[in-house]
Amino acid sequence: MTRIFRHDPIDFRNLPPAIRMLMIANLVGFVAALVVGPELNQLFGLVPQQVVFQRWIWQPVTYLFLHGNMWHLIFNLFALWMFGMPVESQWGERDFLKYYFLCGLGAAGAHLALAPHSPIPVIGASGSVYGLLVAFAMLYPDAVVYLYFLIPIKAAHMAILFGAIEFFAGASGTTPGVARFAHLGGMITGYLYIRWWWVAKLQLKSLWRRAVSAEPEDEEAPPRPVARRPAKPKASAPDAEMAEVDRILDKILSDGLGSLTDEEKNVMHKYSERNKPS
Question: pLDDT for 91-135, tens place per residue?
C-alpha cells in the first residue's frame, strides 16, 4: 500500500496512529504535572544524578512526556505534527516510533555524559523532535520550510542551522535553563541511525534475500540438458528489481539519501513495502 501525506489543518481524527498516540501521551503527562506538581518532574524527569548513581532507568524514557509550560508543549507538538507526518508516512508506525524513542535516548545519553552529577531534572520531547527534523531533512532535503512562519529555507539548510545554533548556544552557556547538548544529541543520533544503520540494514536484508534465494548445487546430480534458444533470455522481473535495488543501495552508501531521485526513492519504497514482515 502506498502511503501519502498532506499538510492539511491539524485534524486529530486523521492523524497517523503513532503521532496521535504520542500527542495523547504528552498531553496526559502535562496535565499530570499540573495536578501533582514539581514532584512528578523529580520522579519521572531526567535527573542525571538519580539515573547514574541510583539506577532510575525509566527516566531516559519518561522525561519525553513532561513539559515545563504550555508554550514548550505546543512547540513540540506542532513540530511533531509538522516533521512527523511525512516521516511516519514513509516509514510506517513501528519504524517511526523506534526512531522517535532512539533519538530521545540519544538526547538523554548526551546530557548524562556531560552532566552526570546534576540534580536538576530535564523534561521535554525536544531531543526526539530535533531527531525528526533531521529525518525530514534527509528524506526531503529540498523541501521548503518557512522558518518562524516568515523565512523560506530548505529543510537540509534548516537542520544544519539548528544544529549550529544548539552547539554554539550550548558551548557559550547563554541559556543555562535549556539542555542544548541534549537537543544536539538527538540530532546526531538521528543522523547516524539514518546515514549508517538504516542503510546497512537494507544492505543486509538484500544480501540475505540473495543468499536464501540462491539454489544449492548438487555435485552428484547428473547435468541437466540445456535447451537451445535463439536468443539470450532477458532477466526475470525479480532479478532486474534486485539489481536496481543494489544499485540504489550502493548510491546511498557513496552519496547519501539526498542523492536519490524521486524515481529511485519510489523503487526503494515499493521494495520495503513488499518485503515488510507480516
Answer: 889 999 999 999 999 999 999 999 999 999 999 999 999 999 999
pLDDT score of 262 more than 90: no
* Helix boundaries (H) for 37-154: 38-44, 48-54, 59-62, 70-91, 93-114, 126-139
Amino acid, res. 228:
R
User: Tens digit of pLDDT for each residue in 142-187?
Assistant: 888 888 778 888 988 989 988 888 888 888 777 777 888 899 999 9
Check whether domain 12-193 has CATH 1.20.1540.10, yes or no:
yes
Average pLDDT over every residue of 75-83: 92
In the chain, count H helices and then E strands. 12, 2
Longest dimension (CA), the chain: 82
- State the distance between the two ends of the chain, measured CA to CA, in whole angstroms: 13
- Taking CA atoms, 165 is separated from 75, 128, 171, 172, in Å, by 17, 17, 10, 11
Give bridge partners of residue 151 from the DSSP assignment. Answer: 147
DSSP 197: I
Q: CA angle, corner 22, sides to 20 and 26, nearest 5?
A: 120
Which residues sit opposite 144 in a β-bridge?
154
Residue boundaries of the structural domains of the chain: 12-193, 236-278
Q: What are the phi and psi torsion angles at 245 (to 5°)?
A: -60, -45
**CA distance readout (Å), 1 to 93, 94, 153, 206, 257:** 14, 16, 32, 21, 22
Q: Which helix (H) or strand (E) holds 223?
A: none
Separation of alpha carbons 108 and 127, rounded Å: 8
